[in-house]
Amino acid sequence: MHPSDVLCFAQRILNPFRGAMHTVRMQWADAVTTDGRNWTLYVRGERFYDDLQEPDNNNISVPDIKFGTWSREQGFERAPIRLPTFDPIVRHEGERLLAAVQQCAEQIPFPYQDHHELWLLHHASGRPLALLASHCDHQPAEAPPLLRWTPGQAAIAFDPSLQRLRERVTALAGKAPAAAWFDRRNQRLPQQQLDTQAMADFERELRSLHQWLAPCELLLRMDDASRSATEQLARRHALRLVELLALYPKVIEQELITAAQVEVRMRKANATAAGSGEEEYDMSPFYLEL
């Protein structure tokens, strides 16, 4: 990657599907956001090792250094300086990245580039059964330690019957589950994260999963009719809908979205008055930082 290059891309956060990571990437630094508003800036750890000539060397993993956070509303806040010896390099790379983020933030949502998908396989047919992970061309193919699909604990709490769906997928994967990487650009794969044909007798659970995932599914490209229907489902999950709103490529039912925003403001005001805060989410799982 040339020092002057800036790469902007998005990647799904999967298994369970709970959002997307949008990234502004330079040779030695990356900035990420999961809500389109608040950015965290890192200088890549490889920058501080003279014997690592290639920043994309996937055989070596070193911690990244957090440069700071930025949003248009709050401005830039520098992270604590933990390695003073390296601070001139951190500041140089971080300031270049900050300028790129300030310029590129208006282009959100970025195009999705996680075309490589890891699918759990049906034990009998060998066909793709459930989506486990994804990566972009410049990233390593890293499989999760457990080849197991899940809708997530929050989804199961929303509808306990989704536990049956998870058990069904586990059974179809067999006692010795296997997975394989596919490139969606040149291979036919299920449109959703599950092969619904393999679970035709679980229609109610699949509908419930679709309702739960609606705020996340709106992050993806779809036709207007599907988007309108999905927005109506997502309206039932106002907090997650509003949290991801800046990353949606399009809005159809604007009045519905406005109603969700009003509801969230009222709920947050009531929570503040009651002395309780909103739940916090750690949505930056791809970074090991110093």
List the helices and strands and how they pair.
Elements: E1 7-13, E2 19-25, E3 29-33, E4 39-43, E5 65-71, E6 75-78, H1 87-104, E7 116-121, E8 128-135, H2 153-158, H3 162-173, E9 179-183, H4 203-217, H5 224-234, H6 238-244, H7 254-273
Antiparallel strand pairs: 1-2, 2-3, 3-4, 4-5, 5-6, 7-8, 7-9
Helix pairs in contact: 4-5, 6-7
Q: How does this structure look, described?
A:
By secondary structure, this protein is α+β, with helices and mostly antiparallel strands. Among the domains are: 7-107, no CATH class; 115-202, no CATH class. It is 31% helix and 19% strand. The protein has seven helices and nine strands, in the order ββββββαββααβαααα. The chain has helices at residues 87-104, 153-158, 162-173, 203-217, 224-234, 238-244, 254-273, and strands spanning 7-13, 19-25, 29-33, 39-43, 65-71, 75-78, 116-121, 128-135, 179-183. A six-stranded antiparallel sheet has the order 1-2-3-4-5-6. α4 crosses α5 and α6 crosses α7 (254-273). The radius of gyration is 21 Å and the shape is globular. The protein starts with 6 loop residues before the first strand and ends in a 17-residue tail after the last helix.
Features of the shown structure:
290 residues, 6-stranded antiparallel beta sheet, 7 helices, 19% strand, disordered C terminus
Describe, in short, the structure shown:
This protein has 290 residues and is α+β, with helices and mostly antiparallel strands.
